[in-house]
Amino acid sequence: MCDQHSGEGECHCKVERVPNFAQPRLLLELAKKPAHGYELIERLGQEGNTPPDPGNFYRTLRSLEEEGLVCSTWDTQNAGPARRVYELTDQGVEFLHTWAVIIQQTRQSLDRFMSEYETLDLNGALAK
Known about the structure:
Blueprint: H1 22-32, E1 35-36, H2 37-44, H3 54-66, E2 70-75, E3 83-88, H4 90-119, H5 122-127
Antiparallel strand pairs: 1-3, 2-3
Helix pairs in contact: 1-4
């Protein structure tokens, strides 16, 4: 059941969701400044964004590190347990640029869709 039709019986919507762009958002945050995992989770959850699931988040970070897009070091300078601090590599910066191009193309496609959608006379189509 979708958000639009909850409580109205069976929903027949099979909508593909627009991705939440977790990977490029993570790379973008690391481009701003290196951070430990918990801080990244908090930053990604700000401004109305849904915070990432910690399990998936740390798997994504590990995958990005294995691919050479992110690197990490242990921070033992602060009080408390050592924390792994992540930062973007040069290869990660290039990948972030690639994501920006993909997102721009997706945005243009969505804008075209909305422009066409807004010109439709759906009231007349539904009356048939």
